[in-house]
Each structure stands twice: as C-alpha cells, then as structure tokens.
Design goal:
32% of the residues lie in helices and 17% in strands. It contains six helices and eight strands, in the order βαβαβαβββαβαβα. The strands form two sheets. It has a six-stranded parallel β-sheet. The protein has a two-stranded antiparallel ribbon with strand order 5-6. α2 links the parallel β2 and β3.
C-alpha cells in the first residue's frame, strides 16, 4: 500500500502590495522530487511573473478555492503572517486545518500578533516563524530575511542608477 505524501499548500499572499510568493516553480520541483505533493492557489505567482501553467509544469496542482487549499494541506507556506481574507470573509488562521503546520514570518513578539499566535495554539498548529531564525553565518542557508534584504539592496541601487 502506497503511503500518502504530505501536501504543501502555497496560498496567494493577500496583503496589499505584497507581490512575493512562498515558493517558485523551481522550488515546487524540489519539493515534489522529495516526495511531497504541492498545491498552489491560482494566480499565487502572478506578482513574480509566474503563471499557473509554470507551477503545473513543475508538478503542482493549481487550486482555485483558497479554503480547499488550506483544508487539504498538511503544511502551509506563506511569506507574511496569516490575515483576514476579505474574499472568503475568514481569517487564514481559521482556514488552517487543526494540527497542520504553518511556515511563515509570524512576528510573534509584536503585540498585534499575540491574539493570532494564541489562535494558532488553540488549533494545535505547529507554527515555524522565519523571523525567528538567527542572522548568523551558521544559519545563513535558512535566513530568508538576509537574502530578501540583499535582493532589496541590489534592486535599490539599480533603481537609483536609472534615475
């Protein structure tokens, strides 16, 4: 009997002006090669110029209903903390399946995050916060904040050079 693989869900980021996505098609290929199944919300890669077809070609299933994506995923990868989704009129925490795992930037020490962290606890969610990874050389391979800051720094120099 074949063991069911864990499903990683990649929802579209919904905060205003947030263009990033938690996984590129190239990353999806790596996850599927490791034995995970991957579901991506339709248009999740739009902000970085990646189409649904590119995600499908990489091995992901494109899901058009965000509630289904959350309900059927063992692990949710996001860039930003869970927020209220006005389209479905639900907070993303409420869409997480009880006992699932969330990997994102949670900012758990921020006072405005305390209620959300308590709700994650109450749903038995294993929450891994990317902003909790120390910015030291030993952890550099997992330090998403430094890599994003580096890209932002390079981009700002290029923008300034063009003006």
């Amino acid at each position: 009997m074949k063991e069911k693989s864990m499903r990683i869900g990649i929802p579209k980021e919904i905060l205003p002006e947030e263009k990033r996505v938690a996984a590129t098609p190239e990353t999806v290929t790596k996850y599927t090669n490791m034995g995970f199944s991957v579901a991506v919300e339709s248009t999740a890669g739009e902000g970085i110029g990646k189409s649904d077809q590119e995600y499908e070609d990489a091995g992901a299933t494109v899901i058009y209903d965000v509630e289904t994506l959350f309900a059927e995923s063992d692990i949710i990868l996001k860039v930003k903390q869970p927020v209220y989704n006005e389209t479905v009129e639900k907070h993303e925490v409420n869409m997480l399946r009880d006992g699932s795992t969330l990997i994102t930037f949670l900012h758990p020490a921020a006072p405005e995050s305390h209620d959300m962290v308590k709700r994650l606890r109450d749903k038995n969610i294993t929450a891994l916060t990317m902003d909790g990874i120390p910015r030291i050389s030993r952890a550099q391979r997992m330090d998403a904040l430094s890599s994003m800051s580096t890209v932002t720094g390079y981009k700002s120099v290029l923008i300034a050079a063009n003006h």
